[in-house]
Queue: 3 jobs
Job 1
Amino acid sequence: MSTPTIYVGLGVVLLMLFLLVLVLLLTRERADSRRAPEAAAALLSKGAFPIHCRHFPQVRQALSAADQQYLEQRASASIRRKARRERRKVAQQFVAGIKEDFLRLDRVGRTVASLSPGVSRKLEFERLRLMLRFWMLYGLVRMQLAMGVSVVTELARLTELVGGLAAQTERAMAALEEASARRLQSGIRA
Amino acid sequence: MPLSLSTYLFWGAGTALELLLCALALRNGLFRRLWFFTLYVLLVAIYEVSWFGAIHALGYKSKGAFYFFWLAQAILLSARAAAIAELCQHILRPYRGVWALAKSILLGIALILLGYATIATLGRTSWITAFILTAGRGLELAAAVILLTLLFISAYYRIRLEPVVRLVALGLCFFSTVQMLNNSFLVGWLVQYFRLMRFFPLWDGIRTLSFNVAVVIWCLAVWRPLSAMAPEATLLPQQIYDELAPQVNYRLRMLNQRLLEMLKV
């Protein structure tokens, strides 16, 4: 391929990226007018996460092997089919919820980074890489779920991870609020 | 060579737009926010008027007009580079940590692309116009990539862009991207098969049209008086990041590991 062709190709890619950024900027601005890190910090202080992980016990019950066995023994074929469809739907919705929790926590990471006086290049690039990887894996897991593979045990591990991170973040934010209040008090005294 | 009526109309419309932009920028105090960008739009308006005078005094195809045109392009390109640097600083500087990180990324990208542009340009010393167009192509590529990276970084860290800054960045990015394609198409393909000057009006037409689109975007940016500057973000103590960031990454890493395990089941 000649150099000019590469350049024209690059130009087309840039043009497409430009359009993508344009759409992103315009739609995100409308959908979320509180894009400022300050607004995200307000989100943290409300403790609005995680939402979906908290419902895992109910979801686990709905997807349990015992329930499945019970249905196999007692229910008619049509009810079993309907139940399988419903279980799959529940699992898909739950994984989608996990994604929401993940995104919320990832936003916490980015917000803290944007409001920090210094950030580590290594950690920031690692988080970006992990996020891209998550999207890829999440897509594959969704596909697997669509094909009917049972993932209840793995969902439990997933939930523990996201929930654990949220608890740590909440602790850090509580410490932050305390520190801010102390600074404010000492500022008033001074 | 007398210019056609359509050329006059095209030029007149473009100049009127640029003068309108200058008036709006000065009236609404854009120079207080983006000094270099305001200087750039002023230089563009001055150039448009003087270019018209130059081609009438010296002739459209004269050597004098040729040098005037390319010298003005070099000055405008430098002013645009300064405006882009100012834009990066204006958007990211209040966020000290992100700015320190982004500065090294943006400088790295700029050095690589400008270095490549220099090497590509030095290989084309045989024909001055091809030389300039190759240099322009490299510089436009660098500008487009830097602006897109800047917009990506601000979107990634959810940094709020004022509407005026956002539209200025989008206008600059649009113009650089179209110009890069325009230069590539001319330098790469048309130059190889045809006499370049035959296609110069086409190149200039695309350049002017895309620039006018950018000017319309910038006019929209400064149409209304600029809102008051948002107060600077209050930064967190460094300790919060130092404690939280490794934990977040650890959890994300584990989460990906679990997802991978789920796939292996």
Job 2
Amino acid sequence: MNDEKKTATPSKKSTEKTEKALYTVTSSPHIKAQDTSRSIMIDVLIALAPAMIWAVYVFGFRSLTITLISVLSCVGFEFLYQKLLHKPITILDFSACVTGVLIGFNLPSTAPLWLPIAGSFFAIVIVKQLFGGIGKNIVNPTLAARVFLFSWTTHMTTFAKPFEKLSASAFTVKLSEDVIATATPMVYLNQGALPQQSLLEMFLGIRPGVIGEVSVLLLLAGGVYLLIRKVITWHIPVAYILTVGLVSIFTAPAGNAIDYSLAQMMGGGLILGAVFMATDYTTSPVNNTARLIFGVGCGLLTVFIRIFGGYSEGVSFSILIMNLLVYYLDRFTKPIAFGKRKSNKGAEVKENGKS
Amino acid sequence: MRVKVKELFSQLKSGLLDQNPTFVQLLGLCPTLATTTSVPNAIGMGLAATFVLTCSNGLISLLRKFIPKEVRIAGYIVIISGFVSMVQMIIKAYFPELDKSLGVFIPLIVVNCIILARAEAYASKNPVLPSLIDGVGMGLGFTVALVIIASVREVLGAGTFGGIKITPAGYEPIQMLIMPYGAFITLGFLIAAVNFIRKNSENIKKSKADSEKEASNENSVLKQESEEMEINDTDSSGIVIVNPNKDSNASDSEESVSDKKDADKSETVSEIKDDGDDKEGETDV
């Protein structure tokens, strides 16, 4: 949407000048798809909808309140920033909405209601807009906001049991009175034990966790929808999830390695991260080889952080780290242009530089 | 070798503002990022560095004709480390808590690039008094910068100022600001703010200088030249745009070109030129 507007204004001027010209001469690309940032973002929102509905079913309406506050504050901050700095306003491309929903999905349902606002501010103003807005941020805004929100560690790691009744509108939830805090499956896995929840429960999403991560089934359904709509390709999610599964089998403590591996895949935020956040256009590689490497890298880092790290979940950190390597991945996997010889890389780069 | 008081004062000011070692020259970032978790730490670090910087600048300036050029860096380091040892002993004896919280960063003042940079760029080429003033200015600039960063980080990140709780009871501190990456983010924002302020003040100065120039353009060519020379001599904060070596025709054409360009661009160009001129002027003193 933003790009469209930018390109639209100069072309308008030029058409005004040469109004009576018979031919329009433009630069490539000449073949255009119907997709816009807006249509893609709406597809992502549709794919996230089932998980939202499930979250309301499991955690109650407080999860919806948190997500809505997060969406509204994301859109609000984007609007305010662009209005104050006299920039073109891009809230209608829905990218801020997607960021908002994902920030909400990354919070536990017990979070105080100011937490999503703080996260949205960090994601939109500091990570996205200060780097130039949509398409120019170097890391995923949602995940950066999640890491930022770990400033308030207790709020980010207090999880309610499924089906526990939480006030939908109370500003804060008091731990001892209202909620009996429980451990997510990841905490058990971190200690080398199998989680209390069965594999089926984890697959369906009846377990404690952040709002959006619990239902593996519905998140995968959303992923399939995105694949069918060709919004994402399979490379990153498949490489990511399989790497985590395979490495988990080999690093499993004594006992049932397959169960452990499946629990590693379904017990944390892996599916949400792999399908919806590692595949963010701006912060993932553009060609498929690089995407596979990106996914494998995310997977390895995730398992290592989960096993050796101080915190039991590693998806957000690993995606952020790999985000920073995207430029190099794209550079080293650059396909050789038609007609160029497959010589050593230095020469190739030089040739390109000259042309 | 007589030095004017006004020049000394402007030099002190340049250390604090125009050439601030932290916000403008981005020197000595390691202690800046590491010791600004609390205001007392920042003050301690800043004053220790100021003391070392002033003393080493003075001594190096005294010895500037004695130290052979080939081994000057080694000589500077010996002088600096002597003063650092003194500071370290004083802090250990009288402020044991500060010593504990600053830890390795006090001995690391030896390799603080602000001190070495001032020794190399200024003290080794200038008389004693300006070098001392330069040390005080740069040191205070460093201290002020550290205190500003530390205030932001401590108040927002821990809810205290100098160890005293000042935020309301409901406020939950942003722990991220106390962590290393919080230091980078805070520093980035403060540099942006300082750049913004400097740019604004330079815009004002520039418009003043422009109006002066316009007035002078009405006078005869000779007068104009002499006036510009004057401006170049007296004003050391770097506003003058016209090079005195060029004749008036050249200056006119330059003016018309700069009018066509964006105000910002021409300003940055002139800024760079002036800085160069400035330094040369200073070394001649």
Job 3
Amino acid sequence: MTTSTPMGFGRMHRKEDARFIRGRGQYVDDVQLPGMLHGAILRSPHAHARILSVDTSAAEALPGVKAVITGETLAGLGLAWMPTLSKDVQAVLATDKVRFQGQEVAFVVAEDRYIARDALELIEVDYEPLPSVIDARTALAEAAPVIRDDLDGKKDNHIFDWEAGDRAHTEAIFERAEVRVSQDMLYPRVHPAPLETCGALADFDKVTGKLTVWCPTQAPHAHRTLYAMVAGLPEHKIRVISPDIGGGFGGKVGIYPGYVCAIVGSIVTGKPVKWMEDRSENLMSTAFARDYHMTGEIAATQDGRVQAIRVKVLADHGAFNGTAQPTKFPAGFFHVFSGSYDIETAHCEVTGVYSNKAPGGVAYACSFRITEAVYLVERLMDVLAYELGMDPAELRMKNLLRADQFPYTSPTGWEYDSGDYPRTLALAMEMAGYDKLRAEQAERRANGDRRLMGIGLSFFTEAVGAGPRKHMDILGLGMADGAELRVHPTGKAVLRVSCQSQGQGHETTFAQIVAEELGISPDDVDVVHGDTDQTPFGLGTYGSRSTPVSGAAAAMVTRKVRDRAKLVASAMLEVAPDDLEWTKGRWSVKGDPKHGATIQEIALASHGAVELPEGVEGHLDATCVYNPPNLTYPFGAYICVVDVDPDTGQVDVRRFIAVDDCGVRINPMIVEGQIHGGLADGIGMALMQLMAFDEDGNHLGASFMDYLLPTAVECPSWELGETVTPSPHHPIGAKGVGESATVGSPAAVVNAVLDALKPYGIRHADMPLTPSNVWRAIQGRPIRTDLAIT
Amino acid sequence: MQITVTVNDQPYTREVEPRLLLVHFLRDELGLTGTHWGCDTSNCGACVVQIDAVPVKSCTMLAVMADGHHVTTVEGLEKNGELDPVQKGFTECHGLQCGFCTPGMMLTARWLLDNNPDPDESEIREAISGQLCRCTGYENIVRSVRWAAEHTCTPEVSA
């Protein structure tokens, strides 16, 4: 694919691959410390129950067991509850009640993981089962049991009401609109299911008072600060090491009770304690995503000009409000739901409620709920096209924002930085052979072909790179990222960044940024990340923010070094700095390019004895903090082609065309890989992934036997295209891409399936469009995708 | 129980608990942490190793069942300092991101190529369909295996 190393941007092999292909990666469970003990968590079998008693005596008596920690133990330490990322509290180990199936009740520390699991069986918990809230639509009913009676004076399951946009203007447009279409839709609860589950290894050194936590966290610095706040440990005595991470996708942003338990276990036993959750624990208790019940409405003219969109959302946040998003935005960035279209006005109302399910909400490459927003508007566009009898591509093309409208302020206040949407959609349609596909579909329908062909489109606009400090913080921590660059005397460099790769290839991409800016080989740049003792502060990797924020910091810190190098070069060359010009890797005298110094020569001189100009310190290093002036707005056009068997309901994805515009691409190979993965996510969510519950709150998707993920045989060979519209405010014009495909693809797949089902008069059906749900839709039977069908 | 298992051509004799899973034996007893664990239910394939040259999910096999058998893990793919073509292919074609599924994918790919040196795309997809990758959307894994097929020097080819 590529053989040479570019001196900057371009395709190059990943540096991190050398260890991974040899089995030499180091994930948290690979870390072994002398004397290490193992933890295991006892979890609630009930969705909602009062805890009457917990008897740990038999477990404690089991040989090999070192400690049994309960909610009561933690309460004595003031650690039974911990703050969530949404300023709620969450039980570390339950004391009063359990509030979802799989909730943490007790923690055993033992000599090995088998004994720890054995001991769980010996803990006796007496529960009094309580009625539960499983269907979010019943959460606010008068008779609904109050889940959060731990909160002072709480008498219902309401969390928040939030709105954005112009209600009056939107209502006025709807009143006089020629066409109004309304559609209920559910974006069901899903789970990111990274292949590596969550876990932690805590080592508290009683002598030095230093706590070291190895944990696959996407946000190591935020974890350190939160541990300091929660446990009262001094922050300089906490070191969080995020080693290689086996996938995160947003599920490894928050702090889970197991992490706190491992820390307490280490403090109590004086030994390192490792806790690794199993797959069922991962699916049942760690952060889920979506669970948005949406009623969307679209107003348009008879000829298909969209005028307004409004939506009411009932958001199921689970038993504790633990979603991760900037404080100001309880529904994340959902209010970007006017999407990619030139729409006069829009309005949304979101109500968040508690239910007896695991907490979470934004944990699946959703860019803070833009997945839900894109799904809503892209489904509404297809529903409108259905009602108007228009081709969905024509309807989109007619309403897309034009290039001359950028920068564009959306009806809900977003400032889209740059875009050329029609060009991107046109390219996708050309790659797909859109007209030919429609002709084939018409012919097959005319011939009465049994297999149903469907063509689905989606056009998405993302808002990523959170975010500007004045608007965005998480628990008061501003979302700016630091970077630090040191160039050694021989011209080799070390970049230290705060964000943490979960497979995105930061060690390669960030080295390429430095290489591009400094004119040295990426092979000469080492990237250090994932260790709070070695890296500057920053909020981590999620919401596609690494390149937009930390990537910008990397570019800016390298430019600082380059500027310093200029001053050193001016001393070396005995000319004024203004008489120097930069060509990649070298400062030289203007008009006399032979008279110059390479960055390597400058690096050596800066550490050497050359007399430096007044005010210039020696050495060649710099630090910076990048506070983004705005978000970046990647976008793309996706087209999916499916064949549906009406007898079985089976959907085969025949083709998937994805044209992404993420601005400047640092390493196109890595960018394409990110898109591939997100497209597979779209197929998974649209067709198979579902966290279902029965009416008692039993989790019906608690293993990979029940929670289905796409394999190689369900995925087509992806067809990718690109347009490049640089971000005008980002130092290197990059926009971020990690979550684009996960955000944009589910709507394309669902739209394709519903396009196939159009002859049956089916306008909408909720995800996941499993064979049974498709079959039921064809039969005109109700489908429920949030609860199990009984 | 005492067992003797040959792992990557080296015999190991150990006293193990009868219920010890092979994946834990490899990781915790032998320190071969390249083999990962991902699901408990034989669905994900992060734990795939070869037993007597056949891919097996090591989370669903007891260590004692491997007594007397030959196990190959990812650590055994590189021979005499030379990477297996499959390992090279995964690097060449960006067949991995987080790297967690990679050892299992490569061991299945090695088995496939040993038995079908020139697999087409659908044969590759079917071969790895018992394993999950959450990062790559499989596209570049398929390309990686094809690359390995095209860059494997069989004795006939080199002669």
